[in-house]
Amino acid sequence: MKHALFAIALVAAPALAAPADDVSEARMKAIVERLVAFGTRHTLSVQDDPRRGIGAARNWAEADFRSTCGDAVTIVKPETTISGKRVPQPTRLVDVVAIQRGIERPNDVVIVEGHIDSRRSDPLDASGDSPGANDDGSGTTLVLEAARVLCHSHFAGTIVYAVVSGEEQGLYGGKLLADYARAQHWTVKAVLNNDIVGNSKGSDGLVDDTHVRVFSEGPRANATPALTEAQRLMGGENDSPSRNLSRYIAGLGDPALAIRQVWRADRMGRGGDHLPFEDAGYPAVRFTVAVENYEGQHQDVRAEAGRAYGDTIDKMDFGYLAKVTRLNVRALAALASAPMPPEATVDGAVKTFTTVQWKAVPGAASYAIWRRRTDAPGWEDKVLTTTNTTAQLDGIRADDWFFGVSAIAADGSASPIASALPGGGFGN
Ligand SMILES: [Zn+2]
Hints:
By secondary structure, this protein is of the alpha+beta class. It has 10 helices and 19 strands. Helix 4 crosses helix 10. The structure holds zinc ion.
């Protein structure tokens, strides 16, 4: 029968399916339910109980990486002992990290992370139930599901899937992972932090399931006074690598989920595990929902004056979480296929022409020069594509433009654009 043959032909061509299409909403819901069932995942909670607490939850996440990816990933568990304002007793802190080595440039790394720890109204209450379904069961689940759908594909660069902890006590797990990246001498192309990515209804009833917010710093956290002065004169305060990573991700949206770039490091008065990476000079962004439910965050589960408080599964939208996961999968695949963005400079002072120069990067088959007006939010024109590492642009007055350069692999995968401005380089 013709229909049967057609069906067989479809089955015989699995290479045409994009990994993002494989994201399973049902599996993600089951993972969040499993995480909630550990009772609490507070960083200061019990670490050696097989059923309850942060230790059991970490072990379960590690087992999920092993069962879905097997030998396709290497599991490492960086650990340290922390103490601080929200850590009254020295406490063992462990991140669970699955590394999918790149086949051409294993030192080029893109990281996706979520935090597995949860909290109650009192940040020091490590014994009571603390479901943490959305904060950040959602991000943890996204990381595990991204690993499942991507780990059996091959990429030029490395993808690191990280389930971190200690976020609610002071961003300790993100700092531990940033330190680990430094110790491994990884070249970190991008960090995608996913924290609260699984609800579409706000505490006032406002619904938005067609946007996700991406937060990025403007001026770099690790800027020196000399860099700040150079940016005052030349520009670059809106061109950090994190900001250009945000612009790149904004180009990966689809009709079901558009990206709302937010040009601040994080929400007002809040933080997340991308911040320790930016502190260390690495490009990083935070994904989070379009509208937050504040009654669901950092609250003991309870009813009060007819309102339901607490971070429970019923406040989540798994269709939305699956959309944010598909976006992350597309971003990870694109970034892991692309070369590092090149370090670029511009010479155009007191001239009627502009010279753009950059350093060659491994894996680049060509480079694209982009420009935008200095008051334009995003890159506007691709000026030219070349295999050289310098280009003279006749008749173009450099004062009136910002320039950037993207590296393009032989298969067409393009890197984010690195601005040819002070502080614009992705190198770290
Ligand atoms: Zn969080």
